[in-house]
Every structure is written in structure tokens, then in C-alpha cells.
Amino acid sequence: MKIPLLSNATQDKRICAFCNGIGDMTTNGPGRLLNLDVGQWCHLNCALWSAEVYETVSGALMLVEQAYKRSINTECASCKQKGASLTCFFQRCPNTYHFPCAVNNGCVFYKNKTIMCPVHASRTTATDQILDDKSVFRKVWINRDEVKQIQNYMTEEHEETSYTLRIGSLVLHNVGQLLPHQLQSAVFHNRNFIYPVGYTITRFYWSMNRPNRRCAYHCTIIDMDNKPMFRIRTQENLDEPAQEFLESTPKAVWHKIVDEIDSLRRRHGLVKMFSIFVSGEDLYGLTEPHIIRLIESLPGVEMLQNYAFKYGRLQLLDMPLTLNPTGCARSEPKLQTHFRRHAQTLTSSHSTRSALPRTVLGVEGTQIPYVKHFVLSKSTQ
Ligand SMILES: [Zn+2]
Ligand SMILES: [Zn+2]
Ligand SMILES: [Zn+2]
């Protein structure tokens, strides 16, 4: 059986918003792609060396969005294309480049994260400050407005194959939904988790067939006889048969796979993977803060009894309850959830919800603690 999603997932089509280069590049060149916004990417060094951008001690790249906005109308002094963001540090020199163009053009890169065009670099004496290797092996990410990013995702008209939200080794394709009778049945949630029907992710995890290789696991939640069922499909190569697992809990279905991986590793004399510490909900992405926010924003979810909200009043979006006007169960899969942004999204609270138990915002809830006490660190590469 052919699953197009898995074959597509192996081809990197992500384009850098600055230099237009496709996919990850060498570490001493533009570097790996970082997530800039929903469906938007940029190379680590294309962002890091932009004139406005600086890095906090915790590894957050600040002001990348401003750099991107400026680059949209800024022509590269070398290739004459738009998207240039690395500006010569010499006062009033207008020369601005793409990162790869700056390298190819003989611009000089300094340890304090500034660059100079060839003309001005030749007049500068600080040769001991020149940085030769531009590789970045530490963890860095682009600081962005997480709430805005998730709102963009929610308000995009997206089909299953179009916009995706990538979080580490996980790609969210569809957040799913719960219809009124599913909400009322109380079997699609428990105290800690909500299981929306149609929820679909791809998890990149260890292969069951090849030791030390990773492959894509396509995980969905489906409604089977009015109960949630957890289905995982994987197909490492198109000439191999797809494997499918179906169980009534995320734990049960993932443990089948983790057991296969463990027995493969035993056969090859490799160390065990400590599968006992891997939670099925973790691998299903249901403990990811972004995904919890999306699920807690689904229509009707605020009425769930016995579910402990992780975000409570910080609920992202106020959305109408999904209605099934036909009353016919067969038409349900065609129904789309329409998201509507509330005028006072973040401050709105619901009297129905205030009576429910809430989890106090924990570590996961404090999204951007580093903003308050960052220290400029342009000097470490
Ligand atoms: Zn780039
Ligand atoms: Zn250029
Ligand atoms: Zn210059």
C-alpha cells in the first residue's frame, strides 16, 4: 500500500526566507534551517548574521522577524536579488548581502557577529577578531511570538497535506475535532488528555527494521464504534509493505513498536532503549505544549468534565461548537471545524469553565522566561 505522505516527508522542500536556498546546508555555510513562522524557515547563519539579530545566553535569536521584514525590500549588493540582511558594519556603508553571497564575495566575518564588505574590511586592522569557522553546534532557536504562531496555524485554511507545524521530531498535520456526541460520551478524554478524532501527526523515531536508523511513523486517532482508537502506520521504503498497528490507547500502540525496536536491538547486541520511560502520549505529541494549546482551543472542549486544563484562562482561541446540521453520522467526516478568532482572545474566560479544576501554569506554561533576563552575547560563536 502506498502512503504518499511518508514518501513526501523524506524530501526537504523548505526554503530559506533570506537566501532562498533549499533545505539544510553545511554548518560552516548557511547551516541548518530554523523555524521562523508557520511554514517559514531560514538558515541559522542567515538569521544569526543579520544586522539586527543578537543571541541571548540561552540561545534565543532575537529580532529575526525585524531582519526578515527589512530583507524583503533589500537588494543584495552581489546577486541583486531581494532578501539581503547582512549589512556592512562600516558606518553609512549601504552594502547588504545574503549570507552565501557575503561569503562568496570576500566579506569578512568578525567574532562580534558583524561583517564588513571587502572594501571596508581591507581598511580595518582588527585581523585578530576575524572569525574563520562559522559553524554553530550549540542549541539555538528563533525567538518568536508562540501564541501568534499558533493563531496563524489555527486561522490558516489548511488541508491535511498543506500546512504543518513541526516541533522537534514531530510534525502535526491535523489537530482533529470532537463532535457534540463525542464530547458528551466522555470516552474521548480522561483527566490528563483529550483525544480529538482525526488528530494526525508524523513522529520520526527509531526503525523497527534497521538498527540505529530513524523512520516516519504516521499516527492518527480515529473513532471506531464510538471509542477512540490509536492507529500507527509506517513504511520505510516504498518497495516494502506498510506496517500498521491499532490499539485502544497511545501507550498500547506505541509499546508494540517499542517492543519491536527493543528486540531488534537485542538481536544486534545493542543497549536497550529504556522503553519503560517512554510514554505513549509523549510519542503521540499529546504532551507538547503547542499541541495541548491547540486541543484545548477546540470547539466544545471547554465543557468537558473531569479534564484538568493545562492552560485554563490562557486559552488561545474562542471557537464555535461544531454542529452537525444533518444529524446524520455518515456526514460527519466531511464537516470542517471553522476557527474564529475572538476579539479578546487571551483575556476571555468562560463562566462554565471557571468551575472546573485547573492545573496551575507549570514549567511548560512559561513560554518565554528568557526574554526577561537575557544578556547580549554577540561574542560567542
Ligand atoms: Zn539561507
Ligand atoms: Zn545575494
Ligand atoms: Zn562596506
UniProtKB/TrEMBL annotation:
<keyword id="KW-0949">S-adenosyl-L-methionine</keyword>
<keyword id="KW-0479">Metal-binding</keyword>
<keyword id="KW-0539">Nucleus</keyword>
<protein>
    <recommendedName>
        <fullName>PHD-type domain-containing protein</fullName>
    </recommendedName>
</protein>
<dbReference type="InterPro" id="IPR001965">
    <property type="entry name" value="Znf_PHD"/>
</dbReference>
<dbReference type="Pfam" id="PF05965">
    <property type="entry name" value="FYRC"/>
</dbReference>
<dbReference type="InterPro" id="IPR003888">
    <property type="entry name" value="FYrich_N"/>
</dbReference>
<dbReference type="GO" id="GO:0032259">
    <property type="term" value="P:methylation"/>
</dbReference>
<keyword id="KW-0805">Transcription regulation</keyword>
<dbReference type="Pfam" id="PF05964">
    <property type="entry name" value="FYRN"/>
</dbReference>
<keyword id="KW-0489">Methyltransferase</keyword>
<dbReference type="InterPro" id="IPR003889">
    <property type="entry name" value="FYrich_C"/>
</dbReference>
<dbReference type="Pfam" id="PF13832">
    <property type="entry name" value="zf-HC5HC2H_2"/>
</dbReference>
<dbReference type="GO" id="GO:0003713">
    <property type="term" value="F:transcription coactivator activity"/>
</dbReference>
<feature type="domain" description="PHD-type">
    <location>
        <begin position="13"/>
        <end position="121"/>
    </location>
</feature>
<dbReference type="GO" id="GO:0042800">
    <property type="term" value="F:histone H3K4 methyltransferase activity"/>
</dbReference>
<dbReference type="GO" id="GO:0044666">
    <property type="term" value="C:MLL3/4 complex"/>
</dbReference>
<keyword id="KW-0804">Transcription</keyword>
<keyword id="KW-0677">Repeat</keyword>
<keyword id="KW-0597">Phosphoprotein</keyword>
<keyword id="KW-0808">Transferase</keyword>
<keyword id="KW-0862">Zinc</keyword>
<keyword id="KW-0863">Zinc-finger</keyword>
<dbReference type="GO" id="GO:0045944">
    <property type="term" value="P:positive regulation of transcription by RNA polymerase II"/>
</dbReference>
<dbReference type="InterPro" id="IPR013083">
    <property type="entry name" value="Znf_RING/FYVE/PHD"/>
</dbReference>
<dbReference type="InterPro" id="IPR034732">
    <property type="entry name" value="EPHD"/>
</dbReference>
<keyword id="KW-0156">Chromatin regulator</keyword>
<dbReference type="GO" id="GO:0008270">
    <property type="term" value="F:zinc ion binding"/>
</dbReference>
